[in-house]
Amino acid sequence: MCDISKFSDSASYYMYHIALILMIAAEAFIVIYTHPKDRGTDKINRRDKGTKWLLMINFYACIYLSFFMVGQKGWDSVLNTKLPVVVTYPGIIIMLAGIIIRLWAVLTLKRSFTLSVQTSKEQHLITTGIYKKVRNPAYTGSICSLVGTALGLRGAIALAMVLIFSSICYSARISVEEEVLRSHFGNEFTEYEKRTYRLIPYVW
Description:
The protein is mainly α. 62% of the residues lie in helices and 3% in strands. The two termini are 34 Å apart.
């Protein structure tokens, strides 16, 4: 964990670390929640292509990078470039918002949500609630949490790397997942794509 000297006050230090613990706890809950479904035998289309592990590696790598950059003693002008102190609290808020969005998305899908890309015979396409405007809100939540992690520590280079790595990894995952969903649901999913956004409402 980061030492308190990296924060402007003790309140932001404790709030940041509470948010970080909640983020990791939420991921642990999701792994436990989806484990029985990932091991189910009724799956008819399982084409993950390794993206499950890609996202897991990206998640923990981004957290590590966020802390690594802040902890550097040398190369301060490059690796340890700091953003203004004012971004700390927005970073924490973005972390918490990301947790809420991801859990909301997971719990909305219920039995349909899995960490691996797969579909089942009884699966239905969810297009209501948080899925009404965005097709992949669980990934939106993850990206928000990772961005908030770097932003809360004020690491400029870390923030840029988190954005780049997450964009690459989640784009690969979404491409694989939507191909499977398009194959499984056919025209129903194609029409759903036309009226929704991949990650960010009214942007993309």
